[in-house]
Structures are given as structure tokens and as C-alpha cells.
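User: Could you go from structure to sequence for me? I need the amino acid at each position, not a summary. C-alpha cells:
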């Protein structure tokens, strides 16, 4: 950690390298990579029969396209200059990748909830991903230009003021910072109407937890608890392969769950050791993740009500690695887990990694976590402009906290300064990139119409 004086000088030097006004620059240029080609290239490593579902989900709206196009934006961000101040990046910090979940102490906290693309890189890449998503979501919800600008500027201001606060705190205090429902209400309740404030205060009643996963995803057959097959979104192994191959894959899964166990601390292993694998299914998740190999494992406990669903999700190379540099972790699952542990205030107690064969027999990297650990996902489509503005501020505060844990918070705060210049610049970027995203969305629509891309809608 630099001394304060050295950190301040680093922040000033970063301002020389990338003036605040330049943060707002976005010039795609004639040599910009074809976004559809980037998506096709990404699909080459995925389950081919699931790709039409991915494209169908991306076709829902420009915002849905944006959620699935992290690889496209990564290529764009790499074309611009950066401040040189590096942090652990989320890598896909759009507004829908923030939400509520249960901490290890079972408190409902607000945090980033997707780390598939996490690597070290320039801090502004994450913030640009966030503010562009707010502009795009505002357009989707029909907000005026003025309202969208207020939303983006509020997020920029929240990031700047949060980083300034963190720069003044001892580092250990930064590490302990987190944002729960009470914290959101105390900080920004004046920005919410009465109905939204009440819904937030009672959010824990609507959360999705592991018990709800058991209720929604399983049923009892011949006195055995099994996953319910709902093709193509959930398919049990027995529906994907012959019974003898399914039994062999289940044994192999038990084998690499042993490797997963080794990635946990001893106290977490004691929790896992109370369970055995009862059933396995393939599950389609998200938008950008569709096509990655994601399984769910039903773990049976020692008592009738002691069951657990784990998500076993393939971890590929981050879309940022070609531009930000290779991760120090050769194991992509470990890259995800270590990044999450560094950025989140309270990570899932069963978060770990493993390497093992998939359904096709090919050995791949995975990360493993509980399914729906009291998860609350924001309903972006139904938010008023006031609520989205509050959501954006909460996301920006959370992102600043995550960056302050791994980066030089004093240097970043110095770089951001005290005036309006940063908010002016980042607002300009959000509008320019939202325009580009709309063009890319139309390119996907055209690719589907021309038969270049096969999309399956409504799944």
C-alpha cells in the first residue's frame, strides 16, 4: 500500500495520463470488431444446442442484448486509453448483476452477484459498464433524456463520494464496509416513494433461498427426491444420456466434488461432509451465460429437511483477459472464486472451485456455489426513474467499495477530484455507448433475419 502522499501523486499522474474529459470519449472507428462475429467466436466453446436460446434472450431488447454482450464491450473498452489505476474488476458490472443475497451471518446485503469475467484491470472499465447499463435501462423504460442523465450522473456522484469516503478510512475499516437494506434506506430513502421504500424494507420476504430451490426444482419419485425435468431449461442426466453413462457421470461428479471440497476451508468442509449427491441435472441460466456448461447437484442431508442444491458452473477465460492480461490463476474456476472473495463483502460459505469431466467427457474448470442463497434480483423493467436512480447509486457505492478493497483508493479518489468534470464525461460516454449498443442490437436482429444466427425466442 502506498503512503498517502505517494498515492495522491499517483492519482495526479493518472489525470495526466487520462484527463477526466477523455473518460467520456467513445469512438468506435471503421476497424471496430464485428459484434456478431465476436458473439459467434464466443459461442464456439459453448454447448451448441443451447446457443439459440442465448440469442433469443438477447433479442428481447437492447438491454437484454447488452447483458449478453460483455465480450463486445470488452473489445471496445480495450480500444480506449485508461487511467493506469488497476483494481480487481467485476468485468460485467451492469445494473442487473447487482442484488440482494444472504451474508454468512444471514443478513440481507446488497452486492455484486456475478463474477464470471473478473480479472484485475482499469477501474473505469467497470464503472463504464455500469453507467451505460443505466442509460440503456432508462431508454427501455421510456425515461426522458433529462431523467436518464440524472440517473447516470447520480451514479457517477455516488461512486466519487464513496471512493472519497473510503480514501479517508483505515484500510481495515474499508474491508468491513457493506450495504444492507437498512443502509440503503438510511442513505437514499428520500429518493424513494413510500411504496418502493416499503417493498425494499420487506425484501427478505420475497427472496429465493435454497429451500425454495428444493421446492421449485425437485419432486419425489418412488420415495426419492429428484430434479424435475423441464426441457430445455432443466434436464436430468437420465434424459441426456443412457442410464449407464448417467451413473458413471454421477460417480465422476462425486470425484471432482472431492476436489471442490479441497478448495474450501476446514469449517466449510465440515458442512459439505454432511451431504451426499442424490441427483444431477443440466440447467440453463442467465443470458450471457447460456451455453456454458452449468449443472445443478441435489445434495441429500442426514435429516429429511436437510437438502441442498449446488450450482456447478463452467468457468471459461474472462472476456477481459485478452486485453487486461491473463489471470494469475490458471484455473478459471479459481479465478472467479478468488475475485468474488476479494470484491464481495460476504461471499457464499460454500463457494469453491473444481476441475473435472463434463457430460461430453472433456475436462473443464468449474466454480461451485449454493443455488439461490436468499437471492433477490432487481426488476429493472418495472422501476420508476426515481427507483432506478437509487438503484444506480447503490450499485455505484458497492462498486467503489469493491474497488477500494483491491486498488489504491486514495489515488482513485484523487483522480476523480471534486468538481463536475467526471460526471460530465461519464454521462457522455453512457449516451455514446448506449447508441452503439442499439446499433449492435439491430445487427443481431438482422443476422437472425438473414439466417446467419439461429435464435429461439420465448425460452
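Assistant: Here is the amino acid at each position, in order:
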Amino acid at each position: 500500500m502506498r503512503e498517502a502522499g505517494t498515492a495522491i501523486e499517483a492519482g495526479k499522474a493518472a489525470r495526466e495520463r487520462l484527463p477526466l474529459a477523455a473518460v467520456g470519449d467513445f469512438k468506435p472507428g471503421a476497424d471496430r470488431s464485428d459484434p456478431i462475429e465476436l458473439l459467434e467466436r464466443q459461442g464456439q466453446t459453448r454447448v451448441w444446442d443451447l446457443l439459440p436460446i442465448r440469442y433469443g434472450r438477447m433479442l428481447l431488447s437492447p438491454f437484454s442484448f447488452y447483458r449478453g454482450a460483455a465480450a463486445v464491450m470488452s473489445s471496445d473498452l480495450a480500444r480506449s486509453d485508461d487511467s493506469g489505476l488497476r483494481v480487481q474488476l467485476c468485468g460485467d458490472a451492469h445494473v442487473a448483476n447487482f442484488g440482494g443475497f444472504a451474508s454468512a451471518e444471514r443478513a440481507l446485503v446488497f452486492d455484486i452477484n456475478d463474477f464470471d469475467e473478473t480479472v484485475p484491470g482499469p477501474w473505469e472499465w467497470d464503472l463504464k459498464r455500469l453507467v451505460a447499463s443505466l442509460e440503456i435501462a432508462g431508454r427501455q423504460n421510456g425515461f426522458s433524456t433529462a431523467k436518464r442523465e440524472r440517473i447516470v450522473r447520480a451514479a457517477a456522484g455516488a461512486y466519487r463520494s464513496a471512493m472519497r469516503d473510503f480514501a479517508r478510512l483505515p484500510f481495515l475499516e474499508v474491508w468491513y464496509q457493506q450495504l444492507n437494506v437498512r443502509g440503503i434506506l438510511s442513505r437514499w430513502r428520500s429518493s424513494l416513494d413510500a411504496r418502493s421504500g416499503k417493498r425494499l424494507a420487506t425484501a427478505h420476504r420475497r427472496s429465493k433461498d435454497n429451500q425454495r430451490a428444493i421446492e421449485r426444482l425437485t419432486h419425489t419419485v418412488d420415495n426419492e427426491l429428484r430434479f424435475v425435468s423441464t426441457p430445455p431449461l432443466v434436464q436430468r442426466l437420465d434424459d441426456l444420456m443412457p442410464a449407464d453413462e448417467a451413473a458413471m457421470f454421477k460417480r465422476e461428479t462425486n470425484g471432482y466434488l472431492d476436489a471442490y471440497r479441497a478448495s474450501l476451508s476446514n469449517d466449510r468442509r465440515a458442512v459439505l461432509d454432511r451431504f451426499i449427491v442424490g441427483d444431477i441435472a443440466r440447467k440453463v441460466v442467465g443470458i450471457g451465460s447460456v451455453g456454458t456448461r452449468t449443472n445443478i447437484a441435489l445434495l441429500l442431508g442426514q435429516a429429511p429437511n436437510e437438502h441442498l442444491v449446488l450450482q456447478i458452473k463452467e468457468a471459461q477465460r474472462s472476456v477481459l483477459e485478452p486485453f487486461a492480461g491473463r489471470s494469475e490463476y490458471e484455473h478459471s474456476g479459481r479465478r472467479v472464486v478468488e475475485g468474488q472473495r476479494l470484491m464481495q463483502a460476504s461471499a457464499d460459505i460454500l463457494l469453491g472451485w473444481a476441475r473435472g469431466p463434463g457430460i461430453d467427457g472433456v475436462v473443464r474448470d468449474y466454480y461451485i456455489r449454493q443455488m439461490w442463497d436468499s437471492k433477490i434480483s432487481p426488476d429493472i423493467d418495472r422501476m420508476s426513474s426515481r427507483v432506478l436512480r437509487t438503484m444506480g447509486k447503490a450499485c455505484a457505492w458497492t462498486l467503489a467499495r469493491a474497488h477500494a478493497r483491491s486498488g489504491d483508493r486514495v489515488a482513485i479518489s484523487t483522480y476523480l477530484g471534486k468538481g463536475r468534470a467526471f460526471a460530465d464525461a461519464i454521462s457522455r460516454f453512457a449516451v455514446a455507448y448506449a447508441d452503439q449498443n442499439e446499433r449492435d442490437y439491430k445487427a443481431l436482429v438482422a443476422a437472425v433475419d438473414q439466417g446467419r444466427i439461429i435464435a429461439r425466442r420465448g425460452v
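One structural detail worth keeping in mind: Residues 210-370 form one domain.
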